C-alpha cells in the first residue's frame, strides 16, 4: 500500500504585518498540512515571541530564524531544506489557506501521472475576485512592455501575460507560469531544479522556476479549485523598493532567458520603460491615497447638502 505523501507548507516572512498571524493560524488549522516551516527573516519582537510560543506548542510547526532579510527566493530555499515533506507548498506570509485547499492540492498531486510538475492555486482578493498572477502567459520582453503600456488591453497585439479575467476552467489546465504566493511541487523536483534562483531578491523568481521546469520537460498546472486568500501589500517595505526589486527581476529574467544579441538589445531598450512604469504606479497610488480623504470629505459634504435640501 502506497503511503499518503506528506505536505510541508513553507512560508518566508519579513515584517509582514498583522496578516501574518492570520496566515500562520490558517496553516496550523488545516487538517491536511503535515508540517509548517516558517522562515523568519525579521519581524517585530512581539511577533517573534508569539511565533516562538506557537512553535513550542505545535509539533508540526518549525520556526527558522535567519536574523536578517535574505530575500524571498533564498528564504524559500532555506525553508525547503528544513522541511521533511514529500510535497512542498510555498505560501506567502499574507496568504490564508481556505480549509479545503491543502486537501485539494494533495488530490491534484495524486492525479499527476509521473513527470515533473508545479501546481499553482487560485489566488483571491478579499472581495473574492481572482488576483493577478495566479495564471500567467509567457513572459517575454515584448509581452512585458505591451502589458506595462496597456497595449494588451486592446484586441490587437500579443495576448496579455495576465489571464485572471479569462473564463475560469472547471479542471486543472497547463499554463506557462503560476504564482509563488501558492505554488506546490514534489521535493525531488524542487531539488532537481536547484530551488529558486537566489539572484532574484523579491519577485519574478516564481516565473523563473516555472520557466526552468518547462525547459527541462516539466509542466506547470493551474488548479482553479485550490483557493487561497491573499491580502497583499502588507509588508512594511517601501513600495519604491518593492517595485524596484520587481523591475530588476524582470530585467534579470530577460537577460537570463533571452541571451541572443538582438534579444539583449530589446531587453536594454525596454528596461528603462519597465522601471519608469513601476515607479509611476507607486507615484499614482501615493497620489490616490493622499486624495482619498479629501474626496471622501467632499462626498460627505455633497451628501449632507442633498439631505438638507430634502429636509426643506
Write up this protein.
There is one protein chain. By secondary structure, the protein is of the alpha/beta class. The chain folds into two domains: 7-236, Spore Coat Polysaccharide Biosynthesis Protein SpsA, Chain A (Alpha-Beta Complex); 249-311, no CATH class. The chain is built from nine helices and eleven strands. It has helices at residues 19-29, 45-57, 72-82, 101-111, 141-149, 187-193, 205-215, 239-257, 261-311, and strands spanning 7-14, 35-42, 61-65, 87-91, 95-97, 117-124, 135-136, 173-174, 177-178, 182-186, 219-230. Strands 1, 2, 3, 4, 5, 6, 8, 10 and 11 form a nine-stranded mixed sheet that branches. It has a two-stranded antiparallel sheet with strand order 7-9. β2 (35-42), α2 (45-57) and β3 form a beta-alpha-beta unit. α5 runs parallel beside α9. The longest helix has 51 residues, at 261-311.
- Can you tell me the CATH superfamily of the largest domain? Spore Coat Polysaccharide Biosynthesis Protein SpsA, Chain A
The residue fraction in helices comes out at: 40-55%
Largest sheet: 9 strands, mixed
Radius of gyration: 21 Å
Could you please say which CATH topology of the largest domain applies here? Spore Coat Polysaccharide Biosynthesis Protein SpsA, Chain A
- The tally of strands reads 11
CATH architectural designation of the largest domain:
Alpha-Beta Complex
Oligomeric state, counting identical vs distinct chains = single chain
H/E element string? EHEHEHEEHEEHEEEHHEHH
Unreliably modeled segments? 306-312
Task: Tell me the number of helical segments per DSSP (H or I, 4 or more residues long).
Answer: 9
Broad shape = globular
CATH class of the largest domain: Alpha Beta
Domain module tally: 2
Amino acid at each position: 500500500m502506497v503511503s499518503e505523501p506528506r505536505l510541508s507548507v513553507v512560508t518566508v516572512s519579513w515584517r509582514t504585518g498583522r496578516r501574518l498571524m492570520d496566515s500562520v493560524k490558517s496553516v496550523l488549522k488545516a487538517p491536511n498540512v503535515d508540517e509548517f516551516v516558517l522562515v523568519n527573516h525579521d519581524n517585530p519582537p512581539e511577533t517573534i515571541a508569539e511565533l516562538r510560543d506557537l512553535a513550542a506548542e505545535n509539533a508540526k510547526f518549525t520556526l527558522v530564524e535567519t536574523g536578517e532579510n535574505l530575500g524571498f527566493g533564498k528564504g524559500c530555499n532555506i525553508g525547503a531544506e528544513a522541511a521533511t515533506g514529500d510535497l512542498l507548498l510555498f505560501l506567502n506570509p499574507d496568504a490564508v489557506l481556505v480549509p479545503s485547499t491543502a486537501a485539494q492540492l494533495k488530490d491534484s498531486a495524486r492525479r499527476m501521472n509521473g513527470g515533473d510538475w508545479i501546481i499553482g492555486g487560485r489566488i483571491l482578493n478579499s472581495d473574492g475576485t481572482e488576483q493577478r498572477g495566479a495564471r500567467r502567459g509567457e513572459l517575454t520582453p515584448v509581452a512585458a512592455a505591451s502589458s506595462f503600456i496597456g497595449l494588451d488591453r486592446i484586441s490587437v497585439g500579443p495576448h496579455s501575460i495576465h489571464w485572471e479575467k479569462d473564463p475560469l476552467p472547471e479542471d486543472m489546465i497547463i499554463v506557462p507560469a503560476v504564482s509563488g504566493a501558492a505554488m506546490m511541487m514534489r521535493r525531488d523536483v524542487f531539488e532537481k531544479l536547484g530551488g529558486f534562483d537566489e539572484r532574484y531578491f523579491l519577485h519574478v523568481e516564481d516565473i523563473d522556476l516555472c520557466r526552468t521546469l518547462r525547459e527541462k520537460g516539466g509542466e506547470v498546472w493551474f488548479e482553479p479549485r485550490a483557493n487561497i486568500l491573499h491580502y497583499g501589500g502588507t509588508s512594511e517595505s517601501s513600495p519604491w523598493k518593492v517595485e524596484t526589486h520587481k523591475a530588476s527581476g524582470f530585467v534579470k529574467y530577460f537577460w537570463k532567458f533571452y541571451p541572443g544579441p538582438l534579444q539583449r538589445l530589446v531587453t536594454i531598450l525596454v528596461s528603462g520603460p519597465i522601471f519608469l512604469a513601476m515607479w509611476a504606479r507607486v507615484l499614482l497610488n501615493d497620489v490616490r491615497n493622499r486624495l482619498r480623504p479629501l474626496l471622501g470629505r467632499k462626498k460627505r459634504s455633497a451628501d449632507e447638502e442633498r439631505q438638507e435640501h430634502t429636509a426643506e
